[in-house]
Amino acid sequence: MAGLVTPLEIASKTPGADALTTTSRDVERAWEAFATGDEVTSAVRPEILASWYRCRDKYEVDPALDVAPPAPGHHDQGLDNDVIFTKLGGLGALAGQDVELDGGVVAVTDGAGRILGTWGDPSARRRAELSNMAPWSSWSEQCTGTNGMGTSFEVTGPVTVTGAEHWCEGFHQWACAGIAIRDVVTGSAIASINISRWGARLSDQVPVWLQKAAAGIEQDIHRRAVGEAELVVTAFKRERTDSSGPLVALDRGGQIIAANDVALSMLRLPADAPASRGALEPGERSSPEIPELADVVRWASGRATRNPQWSGYAQLAVAEGAMPVTLRPITAANHVVGMLCAFGLQEGEPYGRAAEGAAVPMPPRIIGIRNDRLVLLAPSEIRYAEADRNTVWLSTDRGRILAATRGLDHVEEDLARHGFRRVHRRFLVNLRRVAELERGTKGELFLITDPRVPELVPVSRRHAPEIRRLLGF
């Protein structure tokens, strides 16, 4: 690990060059305008402006936030990523020694932005902890706005966020830089490493250091991906001897590692395509032009994670028309590393509509919890749902009940088809239960679902036009 990257220097060697001065007055003015709803076209770097738009209009992060929220429950990182985190932790500890004299903090997160560990100057770490920049807090953009850790998941390469470029005003005295570590198979972020400094800029060399650090870790990920592909090819060769129909082996991302001759022809791939000999390198793999296949592979991988002996099938549209395909997992050390797809076979658990057709119809019910007892609620009984971080409370005709499903986005998925609409980043309302509307002194809109109780549900500026249209005013 010591030879992986050069020593990290985060302070500028130019006298006075690392003064923060809230980035610049132009950026600070732009932030003030944008946070109050105005549009900004200059003074802000494009990647920062794009992040601000996500924070304001998509995630509705409170710009006055000064403390990162606790992270939601366990985030499964997949195959051998504990080894990746061990290496990142070792790198973070070494970097922490480098930045200690310059008042820096090094943080490593998982792919959801949850901090796993921090290192560096003790006084800077204590200051960081005041903002909950500490293990088991969430620094994704969705939770904490523009910052080096969360924003690195949205861009390619390293990202720097200095002073007022942070979406949340409580972090304007920090400068940070982060980079995402990505799975070369799926392209998804599995971790990030971030350098932060309070009250001072970071050296221009920090992004360069981060780039080298990420490249070193991703070399290990690449070697693991090639090793996975070798296991997939071995399993494919065993299966090929017993199969006369189209047979394909896919990686975890749904790309083709191997295919027999009849499958190559069916998929309209050249006879000498890399899949004909086994595409060990991720860059050599091709994506089959089959609608729904990626979704089916994700579904199959989830089932197989719980039961390595599982198999299932789906009806898919291929070049020659609709055809069933049976999926069987390829596993190693209790992890799914690939999937065998036998076209023309229909075995195991059905996917999607086929599975739903076999189920017994049940009336819609939402599950809540009260006094350690499960409560079955009809959607019509629920007036609105309110999020308290990742906990969701349901205001119902039977009182205030804790939702069994965590996260307002997940509750929205369950209730959207029953007339519920998101009206605020923290509120979901049953529009059929809206009885009155009230306007605030500054034009704010509030919904009243029960005139007998003093409950006002705020409607955010982003959602107000749609809610007015749906309610007919």
From TrEMBL:
The keyword Repressor does not apply. It comes from the Bacteria. GO terms for molecular function: DNA binding. Pfam families: LytTR (PF04397). Keywords: DNA-binding. Residues 366-473 form the HTH LytTR-type domain. InterPro entries: GAF-like_dom_sf, LytR-like, LytTR_DNA-bd_dom. PANTHER family: STAGE 0 SPORULATION PROTEIN A HOMOLOG (PTHR37299:SF1), TRANSCRIPTIONAL REGULATOR-RELATED (PTHR37299). This is LytTR family transcriptional regulator DNA-binding domain-containing protein. It comes from Saccharopolyspora mangrovi.
